[in-house]
Amino acid sequence: MRFFFSALASGLPYLDPSEKEDGNFATGVNFAVAGSTALSNEALKAMIITNTSTNSSLGVQVEWMTSHFKSVCQTKEGFDVNSLQKACCGVGEPYNFNAGKICGTPEAKVCPNPDKYLSWDGIHSTQQAYKYMAGYLLHSIIPQLHCHGA
Fold first, then answer.
1. Contact indicator for 66, 84 with CB cutoff of 8 Å
2. What element of type H or E holds 90?
3. Is 57 exposed, middle or buried (0-12, 13-18, 19+ CB in 10 A)?
4. Nearest alpha-carbon partner for 103 in 112, 94, 93, 92
5. Is 94 in contact with 57 (CB distance < 8 Å)?
6. Which residues contact 120 (CB under 8 A, 6 or more apart)?
7. Which residues are 17's β-sheet partners?
8. CA–CA dist 5, 28 (Å, integer)
9. pLDDT in tens, 97-127
10. Band (149; pLDDT cuts 50, 70, 90)
11. Which of the two ends of the chain, N or C, has the fewest CB atoms closer than 10 A to its terminal CB?
């Protein structure tokens, strides 16, 4: 909660929840769900665990985020919608990522167009993704911090 107030005091905008129909997403999107878990409710149920606070898991949040990226990235930044969750360098389906066969191992392959991917190796972003994030930070967020040099 401290971060929330620090962000507001710094001039950062409140982010509407991704599922809000009339939300203003010009400054960002909030995909968080209180009480969500990394495992799906089906996986928890199989282990005889009940989550009464929500039926939303990390997988649901990733689906929301992917849907948002598909609506924004393809048209604005040129990222390939079919590669938003895939690593450019790696091996394994469905995300081209295998922790035992990371980028740099003989089995790993590198995509021909890294600028169309968000993730380089399943852990690090591509240069194009970092460029987009840095541009967003420099042009959208920092001016809202109201920090002025002497």
1. yes
2. strand 89-90
3. buried
4. 92
5. no
6. 87, 88, 89, 103, 114, 126, 127
7. 30
8. 17
9. 998 898 899 999 999 999 899 899 988 989 9
10. low
11. C
